[in-house]
Amino acid sequence: MQKQKQCALLFLAALLLLLQTVNAKSDAEAVEAAPEVVAAATHANLNDKVKVFTVATEPTDGYRRYIRSANVYDIEVTTLGLGEEWKGGDMSKAGGGFKINLLRQAIEPLKDAQDTIILFSDSYDVIISATLAEIVEKFKESGAKLLFSAEKFCWPDLKLTDQYPEVEGKASRFLNSGAFMGYAPQVYALLEEPIEDTADDQLYYTKVFLDEAKRAKLEMKLDTQSRLFQNLHGAKNDVKLQVDLDSNQGTLQNINFMTTPAIIHGNGLSKIELNAYGNYLAKTFNDVCLVCQENLLDLDESKLPIITLTIMVPQAVPFFDMFLANIEKLNYPKDHMHLFMYSAVPLHDELIKSYAEQQGKQYASAKYVLSTDQIDERAGRQLALDKAIMQHSDYIFSVDGDAHIDDEEVLRELLRHNKQFVAPLFSKYHELWSNFWGALSDGGFYARSHDYVDIVKRDLIGIFNVPHVTSIYLIKHSAFDVIKYEHRDFDPDMAMCASLRNAGVFMYLSNQRYHGHLVNADNFNTTVARPDFYTLLSNRYDWTIKYIHPNYSLQLNESYVLPQPCPDVYWLQIVTDAFCDDLVAILENYGRWSDGSNKDTRLEGGYEAVPTRDIHMRQVGLDALYLKFLQMFVRPLQERVFTGYYHNPPRSLMNFMVRYRPDEQPSLRPHHDSSTYTINIAMNSVGVDYEGGGCHFLRYNCSVTQTKKGWMLMHPGRLTHYHEGLLVTNGTRYIMVSFIDP
Ligand SMILES: *[C@@H]1O[C@H](CO)[C@@H](O)[C@H](O)[C@H]1NC(C)=O
Ligand SMILES: *[C@@H]1O[C@H](CO)[C@@H](O)[C@H](O)[C@H]1NC(C)=O
Ligand SMILES: *[C@@H]1O[C@H](CO)[C@@H](O)[C@H](O)[C@H]1NC(C)=O
Ligand SMILES: *[C@@H]1O[C@H](CO)[C@@H](O)[C@H](O)[C@H]1NC(C)=O
Ligand SMILES: *[C@@H]1O[C@H](CO)[C@@H](O)[C@H](O)[C@H]1NC(C)=O
Fold first, then answer.
1. One domain for residues 428 and 549
2. Same domain, 622 and 486
3. Ligand 1 in contact with 525 (CB < 6 A)?
4. Is 708 a pocket residue for ligand 2 (Cβ < 6 Å)?
5. How confident is the model at residue 31 (pLDDT cuts 50, 70, 90)?
6. CATH code of the domain in which 204 resides
């Protein structure tokens, strides 16, 4: 295939050159088009003249990235050792002689080819970021016959430091074996001496270099100014990633020498930096994200992967009922999912248990662990992993209780990416808090990256290799074995990410689609009854969904006709059943209803002319929240119905729930409210929870008796709307009343 393409290109080039000579004067377009085609032809030639080798025993994520970068620049690579057992020892200590032995064998046929150039580099931690033509040019400019990359550290034998030639300024003095380039005879001569597979390759090359006679004979040099190669370890301040604002394409510059190295090596501890640069190098973008389109998988509906769906709730989270409703809606056959649910929170045990026992029947299997089982988060996550391995699942889809899925396609979308590890971007509404880190601090904790804000705000859309992900992610079985939750200093999330990083499994984060969001569990007070109700200010979005009537905003439309059961009494859809049920439960749990007498110590004067059995919002710590509720949701409706009256924020000294019961206080005598306008929200249902009741407006001889749960009556206060509470004959009636702008 590749060869055919080259021949075709050569043929085309020849044809065009011919055309050019024939038509040189008349056809300007052909002249314009020609150089590109000729350049392509040169490329093809270069692949014949320059042999690119790497060693990789496994096709790791890093290897795939390297090969992709080579493909992007039409560079043909020969991979040595693929599929073989690695015999080169532990590379984090020393080793790599194996690489030398593989390379020697591979280039033996080329040993006399004086025109052939060999480029060797590692692959797991290398990215090519230039064409072969540029690479060859940089090599030739060096004047060396054998050019090695250089780094800042003398490794593995520090004692050799003084034997190295001095370098100026910020140049790199020491040889690094991760990448080198040379003419075939010189490279072959370099590899002359035998070496054990497990001996250190860098030391081997270093000894040749430090032998002045050999160095001279091989015309061997180090690329001390990073003209061709950039080793990143210890070079954080030497390089700068330049990302073009229009194309989002990146180049890495060495700012000490203003060079643009073509082969970038994340040696030693600099793998995370390489990963970050790699998000922009080698044409991952061209305005839009190109790498996002590559290697996508079409799901075969007849052979869908088996998933272990892991629901983890290590800490209390608001809106857990909504979380589970979204899990239930995931578009994926439940008989292809094993469900594992973990709770360390008494508050959530009941919902977990009932979900696992009820909906769990639809899943391939369902298991749950509750807080009473006393399994800590680390062990809980390990248990989930063990289950997935035992179940021979193809993937683990792990979702924490704070990650609310809003897109039921999320699992399928993630599967399509076909990665070992991929996560959707989830963030808190209107906050920069998200489920990933763009960079790590030296201690392995959070650090902000240059692109963090753009990714969270989705100003930059793509797929990014990041060092830390939490809350929601998909892991392929090939990565199960490397995951470790145990760690002396790290929490289980950090431990997992560290183990994936150490194993070279890339954690990809995609923000190509909006899939969901994080709820805010900060300061979530679980000691109160119905704690979700208290979180309006910290979780405005979810609070609104749970507690504000779904038809609320329709009513703000001028053309929506609002019912008026009595003159200037408006009837409005304001809150959900959950609002009513939770608020009644909060107040009944508090339980200290007033005694209905005129003496009321909660009031400034201590006297109530028209007393009711009630509880004030202030008594249950909800006054501030309720005022916010009035401002956010009641005021816009008021402005629609009583045109021209504008008080923001609304003031209200009295926000209270009234309880009517036949045996307690069954009705309320006629009275005026001391308000500009009054709202009265029905908290339960006539005919279901009670009989009788309602509100009678005397001036109009008009009653509203069929009140509806979650609907609000809004009427003027102190002059026209003299009214009474009608007799409740059975059951208990609750209403929530505010006297606004007294
Ligand atoms: C939680 O609510 C209780 C009851 O209202 C209150 O006493 C306590 O101070 C609150 N705790 C926090 C951390 O806000
Ligand atoms: C919302 O209003 C429509 C009519 O406008 C009604 O059919 C629907 O039931 C309402 N939704 C709820 C939840 O009450
Ligand atoms: C208001 O309602 C009308 C009629 O239903 C509709 O055509 C219009 O789009 C609505 N306006 C807004 C802003 O929703
Ligand atoms: C009030 O209305 C009721 C019917 O709804 C009627 O029976 C009654 O006579 C009216 N009272 C007055 C004072 O108009
Ligand atoms: C009150 O309601 C209960 C059930 O809701 C019913 O059993 C009972 O008969 C009712 N009592 C009266 C006096 O209507």
1. no
2. no
3. yes
4. no
5. very low
6. 3.90.550.10
The answer to whether residues 76 and 185 belong to one domain is yes
Q: Indicate if 496 and 535 belong to the same structural domain.
A: no
Left, alpha or beta for 248 (phi > 0: left; psi -120 to 50: alpha)? left
Q: Is 602 a residue whose pLDDT tops 80?
A: yes
Instruction: Say whether both 273 and 302 belong to one domain.
Output: no
Amino acid identity of 174? F
For residue 242 and ligand 2, the question of a CB distance below 6 A is answered with: no
pLDDT tens-digit series, residues 409-426? 999 999 999 999 999 999
Same domain for 274 and 314, yes or no, is no
Per the structure, the complete domain to which residue 713 belongs is given by 531-740
Q: Is 114 in the pocket of ligand 1 (CB under 6 A)?
A: no
Beta strands in 144-287 (DSSP E): 146-151, 174-183, 220-223, 229-231, 239-243, 250-254, 263-265, 285-286
Tell how far the Cα of 696 is from the centroid of ligand 4, in angstroms.
11
Residue 26 lies in a domain: no
CATH of the domain at 537: 2.60.120.620
How many helices (H) and strands (E) in the chain?
19, 40
Rg (C-alpha) for the chain, rounded Å, is: 36
**Residue ID of nearest Cα to ligand 2 atom 1:** 551
- Residue pair 312/381 in contact (Cβ under 8 Å)? The answer is yes
150, 179 Cβ separation under 8 angstroms = no
**Does residue 26 line the site of ligand 1, with CB under 6 A?**
no
Residue 610 has pLDDT above 80, yes or no: yes
Question: Does some domain include residue 629?
Answer: yes
How far apart are the CA of 708 and the centre of ligand 2, in A?
Answer: 13
* 701 CA distance to ligand 4 middle (Å): 6
Counting beta carbons within 10 angstroms of the beta carbon of residue 611, is it exposed (0 to 12), middle (13 to 18) or buried (19 or more)?
middle
Domain shared by 349 and 491, yes or no: yes
CA gap 505, 482 in Å, rounded? 9
- Other CB atoms within a 10 A radius of the CB of residue 247 amount to 13
Tally of domains in the chain:
3
The two structure tokens encoding residue 413: 């979308």
Pocket flag, ligand 5, residue 365 (CB < 6 Å): no
Q: Same domain for 276 and 303?
A: no
- pLDDT above 80 (res 11): no
Using alpha carbons only, what angle is made at residue 239 by residues 235 and 244, rounded to the nearest 5 degrees?
155
